[in-house]
């Protein structure tokens, strides 16, 4: 129980209430000492007034008056004359003098604490102002033993009362905390446990009903999280089914494309110059399609293919990409250009880099054609001491905010109508496989720029 929220709250409440009572106890005990001394002065004043009324008081009556007042002697000053009104033998000399007329709170607290801590019975002189202006001052001598015992008795009663108040207060707060906080928190935990047992069941989503603002906010956040998780799990199931279907399709498509490769070998023997010029590009396209199917099958087996690194010139890859995209441009006013330094070489997997550049150029081409306005796409490259850089810039309309938010997430970052958003996700994964990075440099109404960074280091 002590490790629970309510148990610890009970302990802390008791400690804090006791601490508050201790802070009250110190000035209270000082006030009690002052009132005790003031009471002795008042009794002594009454005894002295009795003597003034009758000068013929015998010794026994005088001793009785002093014992009733709890003092050894009484000095009263009236009309500037200091008179010893009552007197009896003192057991020892006076140890200290206390003037109650000018005692400040710190002084009274200090004197009270010193009296409690001093066990010896001493004789002290106490000076004060007479009540009802019955003189200029009154002075008595008394023992400190009875005063200290009275202070201790008062302190014990205060501490007992403080303990009772602390326990009652802590108990009430304990009950209140359990009803207001602990019970709703346990309800939230119970919802989480039931939801964890069957996260696909939408009926187990929590319904916020807490009266405490913070707990209600926690319940609403939990409901939002559970709703998103259910959607994610459903999407995961659909992706798993889609992946299984794609693997089957890729297997059959690979066989079909392999057969098509055999036919393209014969096309290369044609005498038509245009056919002979286009045949190698067709062969390359078939080869890439077969390789893509094989990669898809490998991905379905959770066997990510590592890039096969080699040194090659970039302009050949970029030229193939732009040639393929020019066929798709058709009659649209869209220019495709490159700014690649002559013999610009880099170290990468040429097939994977072709797919990365092709995905980026294709996305740019589709975005510009969708606007129906003229545009331009440019592929450039440069290098520094540590990296090779490839930039794909276009003059398209820019990426919408939603696409920027889910830029590299499959099935969420699509821009074109009917798009899946797989292109950028695949491109980013391939670049990461090289130890590099694919980043969106800028986007807006004037166009978009993506940059590919490939490190020159040997390690990936």
From TrEMBL:
Keywords for this protein: ATP-binding, Coiled coil, Kinase, Membrane, Nucleotide-binding, Phosphoprotein, Transferase, Transmembrane, Transmembrane helix, Two-component regulatory system
Catalytic activity: ATP + protein L-histidine = ADP + protein N-phospho-L-histidine
GO molecular function: ATP binding; phosphorelay sensor kinase activity
TM region(s), chain numbering: 6-30, 158-181
SMART domains: HATPase_c (SM00387), HisKA (SM00388)
Residue stretches in coiled coil: 215-242
Signal peptide (from-to): none
EC code: 2.7.13.3
Transmembrane helix among keywords: yes
Residue ranges of domain Histidine kinase in the record: 248-458
InterPro entries found in the cross-reference section: HATPase_C_sf, HATPase_dom, His_kinase_dom, HisK_dim/P_dom, HisK_dim/P_sf, Sig_transdc_His_kin-like_C
Gene3D superfamilies, per the entry: 1.10.287.130, Histidine kinase-like ATPase, C-terminal domain
SUPFAM superfamilies in UniProt: ATPase domain of HSP90 chaperone/DNA topoisomerase II/histidine kinase (SSF55874), Homodimeric domain of signal transducing histidine kinase (SSF47384)
Database matches in PANTHER family: PEROXIDE STRESS-ACTIVATED HISTIDINE KINASE MAK3 (PTHR43065:SF10), SENSOR HISTIDINE KINASE (PTHR43065)
Protein's UniProt name: histidine kinase
Taxonomic source organism: Tateyamaria omphalii
């Amino acid at each position: 129980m002590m490790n629970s929220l309510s148990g610890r709250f009970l302990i802390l409440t008791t400690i804090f209430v006791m601490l508050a009572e201790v802070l009250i106890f110190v000035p209270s005990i000082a006030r009690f000492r002052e009132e005790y001394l003031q009471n002795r002065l008042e009794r002594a004043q009454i005894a002295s007034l009795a003597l003034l009324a009758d000068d013929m008081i015998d010794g026994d009556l005088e001793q009785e008056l002093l014992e009733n007042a709890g003092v050894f002697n009484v000095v009263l000053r009236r009309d500037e004359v200091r008179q010893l009104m009552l007197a009896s033998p003192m057991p020892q000399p006076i140890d200290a003098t206390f003037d109650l007329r000018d005692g400040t709170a710190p002084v009274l607290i200090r004197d009270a604490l010193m009296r409690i801590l001093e066990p010896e019975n001493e004789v002290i002189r106490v000076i004060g102002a007479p009540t009802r202006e019955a003189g200029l001052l009154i002075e008595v001598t008394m023992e400190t033993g009875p005063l200290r015992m009275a202070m201790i008795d008062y302190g014990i009663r205060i501490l007992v009362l403080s303990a009772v108040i602390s326990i009652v207060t802590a108990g009430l707060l304990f009950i209140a905390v359990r009803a207001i906080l602990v019970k709703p928190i346990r309800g939230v935990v119970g919802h989480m446990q039931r939801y964890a047992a069957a996260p696909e069941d939408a009926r187990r989503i929590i319904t916020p009903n807490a009266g405490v603002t913070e707990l209600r906010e926690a319940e609403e956040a939990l409901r939002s999280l559970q709703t998103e998780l259910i959607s994610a799990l459903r999407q995961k199931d659909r992706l798993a089914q889609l992946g299984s279907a794609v693997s089957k399709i890729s297997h059959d498509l690979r066989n079909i494309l392999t057969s098509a490769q055999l036919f393209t070998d014969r096309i290369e023997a044609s005498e038509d110059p245009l056919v002979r010029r286009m045949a190698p590009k067709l062969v390359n396209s078939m080869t890439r399609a077969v390789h893509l199917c094989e990669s898809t099958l490998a991905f379905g087996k959770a066997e990510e293919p590592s890039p096969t690194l080699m040194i090659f010139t970039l302009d050949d890859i970029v030229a193939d990409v732009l040639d393929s995209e020019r066929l798709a441009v058709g009659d649209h006013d869209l220019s495709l250009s490159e700014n690649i330094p002559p013999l610009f070489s880099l170290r990468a997997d040429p097939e994977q880099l072709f797919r990365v550049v092709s995905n980026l150029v294709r996305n740019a081409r589709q975005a510009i054609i969708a606007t129906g306005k003229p545009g331009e796409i440019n592929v450039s490259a440069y290098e520094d001491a540590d990296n090779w850089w490839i930039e794909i810039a276009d003059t398209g309309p820019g990426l919408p905010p939603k696409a920027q938010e889910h830029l590299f997430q499959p099935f969420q970052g699509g821009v074109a109508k009917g798009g899946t958003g797989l292109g950028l996700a695949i491109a980013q994964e391939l670049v990461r496989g090289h130890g590099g990075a694919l980043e969106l440099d800028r986007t807006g109404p004037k166009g978009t720029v993506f940059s590919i960074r490939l490190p020159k280091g040997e390690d990936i």
